[in-house]
Amino acid sequence: MNMNLYGHNGQWLLVDCGMTFNEPLSPEDSKLHELVTANPEFIVERNDQLAGLVITHAHEDHIGAVAALWPKLQCPVYGSKFTLEVLRNKLRGKLEGKVPLQEIESNKPVSIGNFQVEWLPVTHSVPESHAILLRTDAGTVLHTADWKIDPDPVIGAPFNADQFKELGNENISAMVCDSTNSTRPGHSESEGDCYEGLLKYVEQAKGKVVVSCFGSNIARLITLGRIANRTGRYMAVMGRSMHTMVRSAKRAGIWPKDVKLTETNHLAYLPPEEVLAVATGSQGEPRTALNRLANDRFYDFDIKEGDTVIFSSMVIPGNELAVQRMVDQLKRKKIEVIEAAEVDELIHASGHPCADEVAELYRWVKPALAVPVHGEREHLLANASIARRSGVPRQLTGKNGDLFVLNDPAVRINQVKTGRIAITQD
Question: What InterPro entries does the record tag this protein with (predicted)?
Answer without folding.
Answer: Metallo-B-lactamas, RibonucZ/Hydroxyglut_hydro, RMMBL, RNase_J_2, RNase_J_b_CASP
